[in-house]
## 1
Amino acid sequence: MDQTINGLIHEVLKSLRQEGYTEKGVKKHSQTYSLLVSYADKVGQSKYSEELGNAFVKERYGASFDTRRGNNSQYVTEKIRHLNKLWHFQQYGTVHFAARSGKKKPFQCPGCFSDVYEKFLSFCEYKGYTDHSRRSLIYPVKKFLTFLDANNISSMDDILAGTITSFMTLYIDCSKVYLKTLTSKLSVFFHFLFENHLVSHELHTFLPDIRYVRDSFIPSSWKKEDVIKLMKSIDRSNPVGRRDYAMLLLVVRLGLRASDIRNIKITDFNWQNRTIHIIQSKTREPLELPLLEDVGWAVIDYLKNGRPVTDDITLFVRHSPEGGPISERNKLQNVLHKHMRIAGIEIPKNEHRGLHSLRSSLARTMLENGAALPVISEILGHRNTQSTSHYLKINIEALKKCPIDPEEVFLDE
């Protein structure tokens, strides 16, 4: 392969077309790469490196590869993704495992694994997994089967420890949380294969042991003034603003998950009794919540003055020409991050600032106001208080009231 920047770009654009990207998507990548080539010529560089890409982004957009998502505009974030594909192809010779945009081709299971794949789908259905859980389990399996086919492996019994190591190497730069999730999902698949006599050896023993203790981290949460600042920044004079305000208010005031906000229906609101009744997407358990006054008026404002005319029963819909319900893959991060930028709220470098952090903030507020753990558990829709106890760590003020005197610890008996 031509090792110059132009040679690398040629191969990447070729791979994008092979991966099913639309010509519009390929053109966007090409425009970014043209700007990069001009910059490389100016600084006298003929080969691409991560350092060159970072310098280019910093000079042209005033951003950095290390800047957390949400601080950059969607436009700049897209440009960084384009450059990351160059690095990924340079390292691994593929863009298949890089972030993708544009229209995707439906997954086509390699013929030699189609029987195994169909049996695993049936297994997931038999186990009664939710749609979200089923997708999260199947996604890494698709990646793994594609990887096997690309490496000329056509039988499960041909998989060796080195095969799994090579696959995991593709994700070596991902976070520990992502790697832990990836290995746990593959472990389910590998156990299924062995228990159903589809392989002769226990493949899960080849997976790396990723140490990640969830309870060792304090959940990210918001300062009260930042939540107020966020909500006040939303322009409710336009339809999209009315929709975004109502969606975020459902998280801030009631702690609903993104999946439940996407799927909430107009018929889930009992206006006479002032309650909301939903079946949670994650647990499939029913949940009843009080219809708070500000939440109710925000929903009414959206229904009367913002929601497009549609027969769809889902409350929140897309405000694009095609319309329809919000995609199941949309975690509403884009909505939150857009209004964070407008409000001028910076994201701490080492903290998560997704929609889930607003749930944590609600839990902290209830803790600080003296709410009992079972009450918080019920509001957040947890099956038991063990899940909710994770949020106890964010009540820093309460922890400060429980100091340990070092002298008592080291006191001789």
Note: The chain has three domains: 5-92, 111-212, 224-399.
## 2
Amino acid sequence: MNQHLNTALDLAARGVPVLPLRAGKLPAGNCHACRDNACGGRPNMKTPGPCTCPRPCHAWAAATTDPVALTGPAWASSWKQAAAVAYHPGGIGLTVVDLDHADAIAWARRTLPATRTVPTARGEHWIYQGTMPSANDVLDGVDIKSTMVYARWLGPGTGTMTALPDTVRALIVKKPSPVRPVTVPVPAGGGECRHRTPAYLERGIAMAEQRITGARSAVHHTVYRTFLAVLAAHGRCGCLTNDHMTRLFTAAQSKGESPRHCADAWANATTALGM
């Protein structure tokens, strides 16, 4: 029996979902119709390709522990041509920190808790217990392989596996984009001021910021409705300034909104109010 298939069956028996890799670390499809990604699937895709197969047939989604599937006709020729075995780390509750060069390894040794390590052709895999979203190039020479990706099987490694540290999880947390200058003007005003004190306007802006940052869903809609409410209450008298608008845009961008969307939502709100 093929050496790679033997390795795959041994891993599958231990509950590790596996699949064959072609040369170049590319996954093999598990059906003849999708061989060589003929159906349009991408080699490292996060979802199955646009094919009509009855089951996922690409990359991490094809990884399985079923010995019948592994030895069946769909993958028979794939194992004959296989260059390696891959596995789905997230499928067994693991995260692989893929370190591609010596500087990346040095960073890991300075920063991360010791865990099980596996040597690679260019660096090391550091394997932790726990899953997280996967991401490439989180730092120079550092990739995160966990859910919805595959990793090459290079052996069991050495050392005691430890829990996934927050330091690794933090690598994929996107920092809010800095607030960029905006060109959408604040309404010029000229209407009667209904604000009894400056504190009245300040409370309104603070409540609007809180409404946006507290949104857990429908962020686009929340931003627009909040902009609309602020402009309806404070936009006609001239008390609303660019500083107030910047605060609202900052709150929106902290929730992932782009500067362009903020500007569009503000412009749409002023148009809706006839300003």
Note: The chain has three domains: 3-87, 90-147+154-172, 198-272.
## 3
Amino acid sequence: MSGPDALYVYALLPDPGPAPAPLGAGIEDSPLHFCRDEAGGLAALVHHAEAQPYEGADDAVRRWIAAHDRAVEAAWRAAGSVLPMTFNVLVPAGVGGDGEDQSAEERLRSWLVSHREDLTSRLSALHGLAEYRVEITLDNTEALAEDGRARELAAQMESSPPGLRRLLGKRLEGLRRESAESFADRLYAATRRRLTAVAEDLLERRRSVRNAEETDVLTVALLVRESEVDSLGLVLAELDEEYPALRVRFLGPWPPYSFTEVQPGAERAAENAS
């Protein structure tokens, strides 16, 4: 097996200066260090790695991703601003722009220098901001309880013979879905508008896990300034109080994973490994 000839990149951040103590460990307890553009005040949090992606069983990948996220979050909390990398971003040794062979450190440092203005601007804009995830769904049963047609149909079922009751039950199930979807559509614009008012940016996302008893209203990533976090909590509390059928899930704070797309010095190794 070849020795380490690449850098695994966790995040880009303002250069914190000389580290007075070891930075800790990343994936598989790999020692972390900074690759710096000293003149521009930028740094990349990295560890030495082989030029191939981390691949393995699901449990191993989850463990590696958790270690990656811990390193990114530690850098973010220390620096106040960070451009986090996704899992498996590697910068290998290779040929530089001048046609000469370069180490991974030289390639990454050269990339930091050439993108200095853009990276510095983005890090400055993200200072004091955090990502939050909000999922808002509608409890189908509670939404149905507010529908007068459903109440009439349920009352009719009570006095109906078994055969008709089954038929009415199917009709009630269809009405449940129709009522929940209609209610969710009406709530979507209102909830999105209220969340946008307390966020610097908003990106819609797909829910990773769905519940058959719930209808999606809105799933978003929010970029929120520290001074607005209480306002965000107030908006969510008001929605929860105004609409008892809503189910609100609130996660964070995290580094701004959803609002940064940076590819330092090379394509993602996972997309280029042979």
Note: The chain has a mean pLDDT of 85.
## 4
Amino acid sequence: MQKSDCFYLGKIVSKYSYKGEVLVKLDTDEPDIYENMESVFVSLGNNLVPFFIETCVLHKSSLLRIRFEEVTNESDADKVMGSELYLPLEFLPKLEGNKFYFHEVIGFVLMDSIHGDIGIIAGVNDTTNQALFEVDKQGKQLLIPINDEIITKVDRSNKTIHVTTPEGLVDLYLGNP
């Protein structure tokens, strides 16, 4: 299994018990849907290694307490500390309406209510306070904020996202007066 076939679920942040249980900080808005997993991929070195789960319960809202079959003591837990957890992309819950996963909209056309086709989504920058679409328009890069006020419609069947960008934003990039 390759990382490109998976999504990042969370990171092992601490040991929980002397029996090897660990706490995982989840990267999700809905932690409860991952409460009864049977297995997960753990990133060890450059490899994703499958780990089978004995018990898996929610702990204080956004943490998941996991006991892996292969991790039975504190020493074993030390070996996986700080590791990232991944699941195959098919385990992602399906989103509908205007909700989407960043990876699924790469290659979509961004259609503005005023300027029309403003380019192809080449990537998403989520390292800033405000996530941004990185849009390619004939070799120029446009950075368009991702928020509910701007996105008017996500059309998955036509691979298009309809937006109403703030006045002057597109002109700033494309050099229109």
Note: The chain has a mean pLDDT of 91.
